[in-house]
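Internal ticket - ligand job 564, 2-acetamido-2-deoxy-beta-D-glucopyranose:
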Amino acid sequence: MAHYFSIVSALLCAIFSLSHAHANGNSTFYNPILPGFHPDPSCIFVPEWDNTFFCASSSFNAFPGIPIHASKDLQNWKLIGHVLNRREQLPRLAETNRSTSGIWAPAIRFHDNNFYLVTTLVDDDRAADDPSRWDNVIFNAKNPYDPLSWSKAVHFNFVGYDTSPFWDSDGTVYMTGAHAWRVFPGIQQTEVNLETGETGDWVTIWNGTGGTAPEGPHIYHKDDYYYLIAAEGGTGLLHMVTMARSKSINGPYDSNTANPVLTNANTTNYFQTLGHADLFQDANNNWWCVALSTRSGPEYLNYPMGRETIMTPVTWNKGDFPQFSTVNGEMSGWPFPPPNLNIGGSGPFIDQGDVIDFEPGSSLPAHFTHWRFPIAESYQVSPSGHNDTLRLNPSNLNLTALNGNYAGPSGQSFVGRRQQDTLFTYSVDMDFLPNSIEAEAGVTVFLTQNHHFDMGVVMLPANSSTGPFPGTNRTLSGDHSAPIPHFRFRGISYTAVPEPAIVPVPESWQNDTLHLEIKASNMTHYTFSAGPAHAKSQMRALIDVSNAAVSWGFTGMYPTHSFQ
Ligand SMILES: *[C@@H]1O[C@H](CO)[C@@H](O)[C@H](O)[C@H]1NC(C)=O
Ligand SMILES: *[C@@H]1O[C@H](CO)[C@@H](O)[C@H](O)[C@H]1NC(C)=O
Ligand SMILES: *[C@@H]1O[C@H](CO)[C@@H](O)[C@H](O)[C@H]1NC(C)=O
Ligand SMILES: *[C@@H]1O[C@H](CO)[C@@H](O)[C@H](O)[C@H]1NC(C)=O
Ligand SMILES: *[C@@H]1O[C@H](CO)[C@@H](O)[C@H](O)[C@H]1NC(C)=O
Ligand SMILES: *[C@@H]1O[C@H](CO)[C@@H](O)[C@H](O)[C@H]1NC(C)=O
Ligand SMILES: *[C@@H]1O[C@H](CO)[C@@H](O)[C@H](O)[C@H]1NC(C)=O
Ligand SMILES: *[C@@H]1O[C@H](CO)[C@@H](O)[C@H](O)[C@H]1NC(C)=O
Ligand SMILES: *[C@@H]1O[C@H](CO)[C@@H](O)[C@H](O)[C@H]1NC(C)=O
Ligand SMILES: *[C@@H]1O[C@H](CO)[C@@H](O)[C@H](O)[C@H]1NC(C)=O
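stdout (structure tokens):
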């Protein structure tokens, strides 16, 4: 197709949070620490790399995948890059089927000057006992700030997920994981060679406390005990963190009588679905926990940002199980290291807003994301004759694609960023003259291929209109089948969505740059508006739509630009 799509600028307004210290030196901070789609966090503290904390989170079908955020002060978190940044590392991401497929629950660890990242590429449409559903992989890097340092995936056999490595004091390396629970629930473990992926026999070491789906295990060694942390209850409202311990790595593991050690189940807390925790120590040997949570309240209806990363202080006395502080929005905890913004890597700090001009010589910002692998040529920054634009080439598939699940290998033209604030304004300026019926470009609130709200400019017969552009009188032309450009809002979800709104683009704007805006002006609704870029006073709202239809599942929202 000959036509092109360019965005002159993309604007996002962010709300900043501040941290400050108590008089006694304890810190005050706000949850979530990694707002937006950053579930299943795993974090480490690495003194060898200038006392830096590194966190990894799940990315499902998003590419680049497995974001790494770093901080030197536990207050300012910066995206330093992505573990999965090249197709050759794990080509199978092109073929995942279902929006709940892709990268699940990474575990990041540092050992002997190497960073290790263990995760599972899941094909969630396959049977739980089908080994091909669970592609367990190990990546390693000497330098986490250098994308090319992250290795290709080393595969290892395990019929399960949430795998995490542990180095015993005698040098033996163990892998712990959640066995495919619909078959036999349980936390399993084996010895592993992290360079080759060779494993021994997997043995069940703990069955949890009886909650659904014991998963998300990690092992820590402290005061002569091996401590096993796990998540149970499923990743919904009954999610919880439980622990067990043993004097032997192989068990038997004794459950903590105080289980669950951390949960907001059966409370009215705004932070729900709390679970899937990891523990780490800072330079003062104080313990911290990260876990996932949704800002949904117990109603659990409006949470378009999905599962986010929260942090809470932990008190871990000698010989005892650790104690976790209750998770709220405003937190108090151990003293923080002094503020330090001197962190490498390519991405923004987590609470930074965007004003992006796509100037000549720049590349797509590091926090911009595709759905599975992009066709690189489809995204051109400042192509010849169009400085300060991003040109997208159309894909044949729309955002739903073949069956709402699969889209590979030809892909979808899509680039977006995570929604990280409850209230925001997102807008793009767009030049697009569709030249064939159903050719469409625009902005979308995209959760999965089965959950998205799209506002595009699309060529449709004039009699497709559901009404005039708001505030205008334009009536249908005489020839009802003559194609004209329309603004079209469409939603798709497992729950009710509004009927499509299809209105003619006012004639005088047809060759103008258009301004498309998505605004979350309250906690439950998005407003989609459009107008000419040169006269924003003419902007009109096309529709208000509840975010409940895009509050679902494992991922979180991307306000996005797309083209089909
Ligand atoms: C994807 O999954 C759907 C539904 O499970 C199935 O009909 C389809 O054949 C699958 N596609 C591929 C390419 O595996
Ligand atoms: C876990 O449950 C299975 C099935 O009930 C049982 O066979 C196994 O012994 C249990 N394992 C442990 C470590 O409790
Ligand atoms: C929450 O309540 C449910 C239903 O009563 C119960 O099954 C579950 O154990 C409770 N969970 C916690 C952590 O209290
Ligand atoms: C400081 O924070 C820790 C961890 O939450 C807590 O145990 C301790 O009581 C706090 N100290 C004071 C003086 O509040
Ligand atoms: C576009 O940007 C390039 C590189 O900065 C510059 O050389 C060129 O003059 C610009 N073109 C226009 C039309 O401004
Ligand atoms: C998207 O494309 C598929 C075919 O690939 C089509 O069945 C579907 O109706 C289209 N529409 C939407 C809203 O996704
Ligand atoms: C709409 O039509 C009415 C009656 O013809 C006219 O008075 C009014 O100015 C028109 N409004 C616009 C926005 O064109
Ligand atoms: C639009 O007009 C064409 C030609 O008259 C007709 O075939 C078609 O059914 C109409 N579509 C709608 C949605 O009314
Ligand atoms: C828009 O541009 C096209 C192609 O250059 C031209 O045919 C058309 O008349 C223009 N429309 C308006 C409203 O200026
Ligand atoms: C949020 O905005 C929508 C649409 O503007 C409105 O219908 C709804 O009542 C608002 N909700 C609250 C709690 O203000």
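Auto-summary: Residues 522, 524-525, 544 surround 2-acetamido-2-deoxy-beta-D-glucopyranose (ligand 10) (CB under 6 Å). The first strand starts at residue 5 and ends at 12.
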